[in-house]
């Protein structure tokens, strides 16, 4: 599959995401924030970083990039989109996912290996995992605390749309330990931790993040 990886001014993890896409058996296509078309890709990854310097709120400016008009339109038609960390923030700002990411409750940037439970393996990006599989990946953010109103949280829980939950430690004050969510259709996933940094034994905490990049090959969304 051809997976586009978008670079915004200030993006940090686009090259790692492209590498993860390739190691996952897909072709990586570099997309730019100013692009007006998606070059025929089958799916898009919005990678982590500090797009537009995190001004206003993380992701608040990127949401208005030309490429996001295309990504939102394609996602609404069912194209798989994965937002990692800053990408998750952009997806919430774009209203492709509900809720928001706000400053960590302890007010410090956090960087650690984080254990997660994959609670929904029926999405385009998580089908390679077993239900409730526990994985360890990297977490690094300043504004990673997931918040939503009670009704939205109940809806997400009731519809099984919590994709991943923090285990052992809640690193940022996210409500209900939420680390990642999906939209109703399961094609759009936002995840605060970074699976693209856990794909090779040589660096990072093992290879348990790779499933996010191999799922699409087998997925019914493909
Ligand atoms: N690793 C990231 O993508 C960081 C996202 C964002 N800049 C934050 O600090 O929360």
Automatic annotation (TrEMBL):
Part of the FGAM synthase complex composed of 1 PurL, 1 PurQ and 2 PurS subunits. Pathway: Purine metabolism; IMP biosynthesis via de novo pathway; 5-amino-1-(5-phospho-D-ribosyl)imidazole from N(2)-formyl-N(1)-(5-phospho-D-ribosyl)glycinamide: step 1/2. HAMAP family: PurQ. Keywords: ATP-binding, Cytoplasm, Glutamine amidotransferase, Hydrolase, Ligase, Nucleotide-binding, Purine biosynthesis. Gene3D superfamilies: 3.40.50.880. Part of the phosphoribosylformylglycinamidine synthase complex involved in the purines biosynthetic pathway. Catalyzes the ATP-dependent conversion of formylglycinamide ribonucleotide (FGAR) and glutamine to yield formylglycinamidine ribonucleotide (FGAM) and glutamate. The FGAM synthase complex is composed of three subunits. PurQ produces an ammonia molecule by converting glutamine to glutamate. PurL transfers the ammonia molecule to FGAR to form FGAM in an ATP-dependent manner. InterPro entries: Class_I_gatase-like, PRibForGlyAmidine_synth_PurQ. It catalyses: N(2)-formyl-N(1)-(5-phospho-beta-D-ribosyl)glycinamide + L-glutamine + ATP + H2O = 2-formamido-N(1)-(5-O-phospho-beta-D-ribosyl)acetamidine + L-glutamate + ADP + phosphate + H(+); L-glutamine + H2O = L-glutamate + NH4(+). Its main location: cytoplasm. The keyword ATP-binding applies. It comes from the Bacteria. Its EC number is 6.3.5.3, 3.5.1.2. This is Phosphoribosylformylglycinamidine synthase subunit PurQ. PROSITE patterns: GATASE_TYPE_1 (PS51273). The active site is at residues 85, 194, 196. It holds the Pfam family GATase_5. It is found in: Cytoplasm.
């Amino acid at each position: 599959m051809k997976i586009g990886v978008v670079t915004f001014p200030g993006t940090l993890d686009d090259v790692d995401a492209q590498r993860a896409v390739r190691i996952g058996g897909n072709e990586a296509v570099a997309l730019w924030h100013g692009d007006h078309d998606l070059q025929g890709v089958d799916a898009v990854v919005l990678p982590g970083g500090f797009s537009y310097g995190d001004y206003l709120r993380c992701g608040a400016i990127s949401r208005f990039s030309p490429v996001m008009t295309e990504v939102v339109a394609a996602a609404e038609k069912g194209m798989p989109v994965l937002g990692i960390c800053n990408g998750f923030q952009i997806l919430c700002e774009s209203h492709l996912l509900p809720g928001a990411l706000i400053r960590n409750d302890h007010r410090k940037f956090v960087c650690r290996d984080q254990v997660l439970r994959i609670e929904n393996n029926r999405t385009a990006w998580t089908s390679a995992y077993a239900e409730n599989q526990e994985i360890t990946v990297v977490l690094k953010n300043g504004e990673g605390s997931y918040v939503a109103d009670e009704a939205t949280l109940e809806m997400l829980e009731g519809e099984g749309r919590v994709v991943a939950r923090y285990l052992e430690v809640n690193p940022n004050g996210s409500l209900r330990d939420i680390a990642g969510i999906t939209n109703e259709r399961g094609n759009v996933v936002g995840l605060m931790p970074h699976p693209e940094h856990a794909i090779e034994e040589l660096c990072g905490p093992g290879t348990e993040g790779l499933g996010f990049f191999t799922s699409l090959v087998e997925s019914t969304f493909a």
